[in-house]
Amino acid sequence: APAQQTPVQLQPLIAAMEQRLEIANDVARSKWHSGKPVQDSERERQVIQNAESRAGEFKLGADDVREFMTAQMEANKMVQYARIKQWRESDHSPEKPESSLTDGIRGRLDTLLPVLMHSYSAFQPYRSDTRCPDWVQSEIQRQANDPVIVSALQRAAGDLCRTTPNQ
Ligand SMILES: O=C(O)C(=O)C[C@]1(C(=O)O)C=C[C@@H](O)C=C1
User: Fold this and answer.
1) Which of 31, 40, 74, 78 to mutate to test the pocket of ligand 1 (most atoms within 8 A of CB)?
2) CA R_g for the chain
3) Are 18 and 81 within 8 A, CB to CB?
4) Under 8 Å between Cβ of 119 and 9
């Protein structure tokens, strides 16, 4: 079974990605109450710049870091849009989060950055393995149940495996 051969380095990586997506629930609650749009391109540039500036610390290339963090933010927006749609359609307003977006929630996303980069770095040797896509799918299914989180994790992990096309 593919799960048995899954490298141990994948579990903490998917876990950190999932934690980042859990924070998206609070981002969405905050934006629901503030009326701010989900998309904040200026903040996305800052996140990418911050991550790129730390690439060397984790022996990662700037291109990989940019691609990886872009995927994490696209996945984050998927969760936000899905939650906002659920609240709108169920006519149920979520509670205001304890902390605001700029002094609290983004701080939690920032705190997770080195954790994500560290686990992404540890997974580098396995990215080109032909079993990589199977490992990633089974690990996502193992760690997540909520279909919104599962889809977002699939997006977040979309570039993890370097599969060589076979024509
Ligand atoms: O910080 C925000 O405003 C978020 O919505 C979070 C986040 C991210 O994933 O870091 C996602 C979408 C925005 O375009 C910017 C950043």
Assistant:
1) 40
2) 16
3) no
4) yes
pLDDT tens digits along 110-129: 999 999 999 999 999 999 99
Classified by CATH at the fold level, domain 7-156 comes out as Chorismate Mutase Domain, subunit A (1.20.59)
- Measured CA to CA, the distance from residue 162 to residue 5 in angstroms comes to 18
Give the residue from 6, 77, 68 showing the smallest Cα distance to 41.
77
pLDDT above 60: residue 142: yes
pLDDT digit string, tens, across residues 30-59:
999 999 999 999 999 999 999 999 999 999
For the chain, the structural domain boundaries read 7-156
Rounded to 5°, the CA angle 148-106-138 comes to 30
Ligand 1 and 21: CB distance under 6 A: no
